[in-house]
Amino acid sequence: MLYLNLGILILSTIFLYILEKKLLSRNLIEKENSCEHLKDEYDKAGRENIRLKTDNADLKSLLDETIALYDLTRDIRKLIDEEQIFNLFRERIKKYMHVGGDCLFLKPDEDLKHYKDYTVFPLVIEKETVGHLAVSDIEGKDKDKFYILAQQFIAGLKGALLFKRLQEITTTDSLTQIFNRRYFLERFKDEFERSKKFKHSLSFLMVDIDHFKDFNDRYGHLVGDAILREVTKTIKENIRQIDFMGRYGGEELSIVLTETGSLQARFVAERIRQIIEQRQFRIYDEDLKVTISIGISTFPDDTKEPLIIIEKADQALYRAKEEGRNRICVYQAHA
User: Fold this and answer.
1) In the list 81, 239, 303, 324, which could disulfide-bond 308, CB 3.0-4.6 Å?
2) Domain span at residue 161?
3) Cα–Cα distance, 203 to 262 (Å, whole number)
4) pLDDT tens, position by position, 92-116
């Protein structure tokens, strides 16, 4: 009986040992599997972290580009000069992309054959090509970015051109394409004050087309308008760039000769008178001869007040017409 109990004990011990070994083996396998799973999860989390970092970097880059685009748009729209807009654009694109070469603003008549090594972007406003942007040594990945930024340059350029056109409308006489009376008088007053300040002479010419009413009555107002345009164009071609003229009213034109005394002004006026007299004007189907009369007054010889100098030039013009037209008269106090 004792041996039987001992045998049972031994068998039970062996069974328990085997069972415990199996359980330990199973636990070990489960732990190994668990470790493998944890390792996979860890690797997955690491890959996700890398993806998130990449996405964040891409988002930051996109945000930086969006801010850069906003800043460029905002700053460009503050400017109204084409050259200033381009200089700002060129400065900014070198900050936000790799441009190893140069960026150029080409006029519409530029020969693009000379820029074969450049990336050329046409600048089109209202179906009209107003120029080209040409950039050299730009990386391929930056070309799309360059085109996007170039659209902002076009927007700024469009604003500048619109401002220029509006300015021309408000300052230019639509018929003669010279200054209208209001803007001419503003410019004249500024130039008069400058002449005072620097002690320069200034001469004012009042010009009138002789017998202009007769042209209108005989040939019609279209011919009269064409005569006024052609006379204005001829005079403008025969004064200096620093001088300026405006349509004072009707067929009367005003000219300001800067830094010009009475004697020089008379010489300029006589030259203009002779050129008009000698020219044959082809107006529609008519060949016409036109003459002009000119009155001259000068600062500081005749007056030191801007409005008085206009009045005295007008008095000299009246005398030229009274004396037979097609002549020059200089203001004379005793006349």
Assistant:
1) 303
2) 82-171
3) 7
4) 777 766 666 778 888 888 888 888 8
